[in-house]
Design brief:
It contains nine helices and eleven strands. The chain is α/β, with parallel strands linked by helices. The structure holds guanine.
């Protein structure tokens, strides 16, 4: 039997808490969203984030740029939002279409408005055990692991992905939970042997049916971060054949996605609270 780790239910709970925290503030928090280009997946994620933010009472502004916008144009918008008192959180949807410097743009966001937790200062703070704004996706994955109610201490996790910015904060949160983690990518040599040794597998490669039964130890915990559009359906990276083999598994949709959005809203509120405190 595989138990499904339901992100939607957990996310609803967090959104209700977010709504309550917003009503306790003197002003609604403000979120500035920057979307560059016309990637349909990015446009969809941005729409979901904006809808969820509005639903809990966050004020949202969407700033759209063309595919060929320059780094300078985007940094200039970031600086404008940095200076605004009514904007507490800034989100630049990734990946950028190309031709822009992701590092330069992320570094331009004021660290206290960096609700994705991607700014070098926030990354360093997390590694130094003094976290301020922590990447929502890493929080979402840890919450799903907790939802399994399994002792995590001394477990071994394998994270399969292609982005260091995604893996680094997750490895740190796992370390704090006494989980040892190995980061690999889809072309790592002898990948199956590595994943078969794992108690926990986090898969984020963006390829449907990537993670198959032969790669997974029986009763392992699978967290599926993939989102792949197949015709009109969204599916993850884990094959259906894992149901009945894995011990616990998150689903796509309804797993990491809604929880990540919920934690993003919490970060906007946290950012607003921090900024209110600093202004005193
Ligand atoms: N693209 C995929 N995941 C993310 C995320 O967590 N934040 C941003 N800004 N872009 C993303």
């Amino acid at each position: 039997m595989t138990e499904i780790l339901n992100g939607s239910v957990l996310a609803k709970n967090i959104r209700e808490k977010a709504k309550k925290r917003v009503t306790d503030l003197n002003h609604p928090p403000g979120l500035g969203v920057i979307l560059v280009g016309d990637n349909p997946a990015s446009a969809l994620y941005v729409r979901l984030k904006i809808e969820a933010a509005k639903e809990v009472g966050i004020f949202v502004e969407r700033h759209q740029f063309e595919n060929d916008a320059t780094t300078e144009m985007i940094v200039s918008k970031v600086n404008e939002l940095n200076a605004r008192k009514d904007i507490n959180g800034i989100l630049v949807q990734l990946p950028l279409p190309g031709g822009q410097s992701t590092d330069e743009i992320i570094s331009a966001i004021h660290p206290v408005k960096d609700i994705d937790g991607f700014h070098p200062e926030n990354r360093r703070a997390l590694l130094a055990n003094t976290p301020v704004l922590v990447p929502p996706v890493a929080l979402a994955i840890m919450r799903l692991l907790q939802a399994s109610r399994q002792p995590l201490r001394n477990k071994h996790a394998v994270i399969i992905g292609n982005s260091e910015i995604f893996a680094e904060p997750l490895i740190e949160l796992m370390r704090e939970a006494h989980v040892s983690a190995t980061f690999v990518n889809r072309s790592t040599e002898a990948l199956s042997a590595i994943t078969r040794a794992a108690d926990i597998i986090v898969v984020a490669v963006g390829k449907e049916n990537f993670l198959t039964k032969d790669m997974v130890k029986e009763a392992a915990i699978i967290i599926d971060v993939g989102t792949n559009k197949i015709k009109n359906k969204t599916v993850g990276d884990a094959s259906k054949e894992l149901e009945g083999h894995a011990g616990f598994m998150s689903q796509v949709p309804g797993g990491v996605g809604p929880l990540t959005v919920a934690y993003l809203l919490m970060n906007v509120i946290k950012a607003k609270e921090l900024q209110d405190k600093e202004a005193v």
